Amino acid sequence: MGRYDLEYPKEATNTVKRLNERGTYSLETIHRIINSSQILHISFTSPSQPFPVILPMIGQMGSFDRPSADTGDPLDLYLHGYVSSRIMNLSRAQSDGEDPQGMPVCVAASHVDGLVLAISSFSHSYNYRSAVLFGHATLVTDEEEKMYAMELITDSVVPDRWRHTRLPPTKAELQSTGILKVRIASGSAKIHVGQAHDDKHDMENEAMRDSVWTGVLPIHQTMGEPLASPYNRVDVPGYISQFAQDFNGDNQQQALDAAKDQ
Amino acid sequence: MGRYDLEYPKEATNTVKRLNERGTYSLETIHRIINSSQILHISFTSPSQPFPVILPMIGQMGSFDRPSADTGDPLDLYLHGYVSSRIMNLSRAQSDGEDPQGMPVCVAASHVDGLVLAISSFSHSYNYRSAVLFGHATLVTDEEEKMYAMELITDSVVPDRWRHTRLPPTKAELQSTGILKVRIASGSAKIHVGQAHDDKHDMENEAMRDSVWTGVLPIHQTMGEPLASPYNRVDVPGYISQFAQDFNGDNQQQALDAAKDQ
After folding, report:
1. Average pLDDT of the residues in B30-45
2. Does the pTM exceed 0.90?
3. I want to staple B51 with a disulfide (CB 3.0 to 4.6 A). Which of A39, A134, A239, B232 is the partner?
4. A237, B261: Cβ pair inside 8 Å?
5. Is ipTM strictly over 0.90?
């Protein structure tokens, strides 16, 4: 991270209106939420239909121009998909046609860290981290940038995996894989942490205090024991077992930290 | 479920174009994915801005007209939110104004059940379940339906929680909470299960077979020990400990089942 904690500008598009004490515009915070999410939801509109469309995709933020950039720096979002999928075709058509900037998209990622149970059901809440980004999607055509993005995305699934796979990619693999690049226009995140809280009249309700359990049910993702494929001949390598251990430890800690009374 | 496994009609909006062997239109399958997701992503467009918007929300499918309906029956989606949030205001404005059907939305839910690691990075995959629904959102104004939806949504977070909280809701609670009802127009789901697979040329590559670990890293959500609030006076009740136990057992089993070689 640089000397400043960079923020996305607050505009009509991204301003968190509700419970704004939970809102943040920090690039570092937003990018971390996106990059630690295994699935991103991408929304776009299509002139041929009345509903916006959401697709689940795999992606990661990075900078091809400056690969050493930190999480808190201005970054692009790279998304992986099948080359002739609808989102790829629409992005191609829009950047070739009316809008060279690319297709307007919204990208969302959310993590649940716990269920917060209060006396009143209306004071129930989640501990969560959620982020949205707004930007324009174009297809990556530069071969070198495409390779950069594929390595970035593969290593986001399992750190250090790319160089442990069969390389280089075949021509067919490269041709069948599309990479979308989203240039970010703005973004925001919402984070909620803490223990249960109730309004004064519920806190003073002795009968309810004596009968309703209040607290947090912490929730986190867990990775189980690796399950080798029928054709695997190799012991679980260190970079995978270390990843699983870090994943489990970090996620559990995140859920426990979120549940602390603030 | 009824005598038939009902399906949403296949139309341009919802047809799964890519890898269609994974696509399904079964109401039962789609509704289960939505109902077991703690956070739903809702997308809508606003005339005042260029990007579609995604919001994370809590919701559940049900039928106010026929509360005994099964998961595989035609259902509505109820979403919970703050009454003067942007999505509520837009829904209200649209159904009062140009489109009495309500605001067109897309709703998505995705679960990751495992990371599938192959010899080629291009044969990597996820085991996952994802669903999208398309429909029109309107604000619920009927008091009885609003109460039905709030109970439905609270009990979707922790089964049986509603009747263990302070009831009835106060007037202020009811007034500050908005419920959106999405009438579903169509939907689809994509599911991927299985062990790692590689193309023939990678399977015949002895050097790679001897060096690359292939298999599945199963992933599931885990609920940790309940953490009581500072003002809690009650032991963890059975309906909560049972829920935590079922949640953990079911999710782990789902991830393990998904990783089985097909």
Report:
1. 97
2. yes
3. A134
4. no
5. yes
